[in-house]
Design goal:
The protein is mainly beta. Helix content is 11%, strand content 47%. The chain has two helices and 18 strands. Strands 2, 4, 7, 10, 11, 13, 14 and 15 form an eight-stranded mixed sheet that branches. A five-stranded antiparallel sheet has the order 1-3-12-5-6, with no helix packed on it. A hairpin with a 2-residue loop joins strand 5 (71-78) and strand 6.
């Protein structure tokens, strides 16, 4: 027969075990991405969409990618391996909803926008392992309105198809849906001080040359190419207090 002190010790051990078990953190897919905030109409831009895990292992990682009408997912790859995006369809009124074929869950998106899903060629993700960086490339529609910010131009959701078990016992696990703003553009200017070592005497009596480059979308024509800047902006750009001679160059661009 067990004594009362032994029984009390045994009970404490059971309670401690239960308490520790209940503190286990659930699997959580987390997105990391820094896409460009602007680029040319009629061209593509690429960026890495990383996925990391915290908590218990997650199984069957993939991304949901929701795009506005002016953006189209054109390709995806992982460590140089080409991946095949699944084009689910176009969001349409009245519901603006599509069914994710991997998770079976409903996804809501913008009218005229698209839903794509892209699987990683990875079975599971554990906490602490390096980020799984999937490179995504998107086309910007040639008729997109230029110089107008599009809020939530595209959104990404990291997902575990099977959740926290290899056979999907508890269903899929979804990370946070993250939107990214983007401004379509036609022309981009850059300034270069062409003097040796960027060294010049100070003061408005001294004049030197800088080059201004106009980078133009490959499928657009800009005529004439103008660059307007007052003296204050010039001083801010090159950190000089002087007069400046502008030389404007148009950069040829090739697809």
């Amino acid at each position: 027969m067990l004594s009362k002190s032994v029984c009390r010790q045994f009970a404490c051990t059971i309670l401690l075990t239960v308490s520790l078990s209940s503190a286990v953190i659930a699997d959580t897919p987390t997105l990391s991405a820094s896409p460009p905030t602007s680029d040319f109409v009629g061209e593509a831009f690429c960026f890495d969409a990383g996925l990391t895990n915290s908590g218990t292992p997650g199984f069957g990682p993939y991304h949901q990618i929701i795009t506005q009408p002016d953006f189209t997912l054109s390709s995806a790859d992982f460590l140089g391996l080409g991946l095949t995006p699944i084009s689910v369809g176009t969001f349409a009124l009245p519901s603006n909803q599509l069914i994710d074929p991997i998770s079976g869950q409903t996804v809501t998106g913008p009218t005229g926008g698209e839903l794509n899903v892209v699987r990683y060629p990875i079975g599971s993700v554990v906490a602490g392992q390096p980020s799984l960086d999937m490179t995504l490339c998107m086309d910007v529609d040639t008729n997109a309105v230029i110089d107008v910010l599009q809020s939530g131009a595209f959104e990404i959701v990291p997902v575990y198809e099977f959740g926290d078990t290899a056979v999907g016992t508890n269903g899929p696990t979804f990370g946070t849906r993250t939107g990214f703003d983007f401004t379509p553009m036609v022309i981009r200017y850059s300034i270069s001080d062409v003097t040796a070592e960027m060294e010049n005497p100070p003061g408005p009596a001294w004049v030197w040359n800088i080059d201004v480059f106009a980078d133009i979308a490959s499928n657009k024509t800009v005529t004439p190419v103008d660059f307007t800047a007052d003296r204050a902006s010039c001083e801010c750009s090159i950190r000089r207090s002087c007069c400046i001679l502008w030389h404007l160059h148009e950069l040829p661009r090739y697809k």
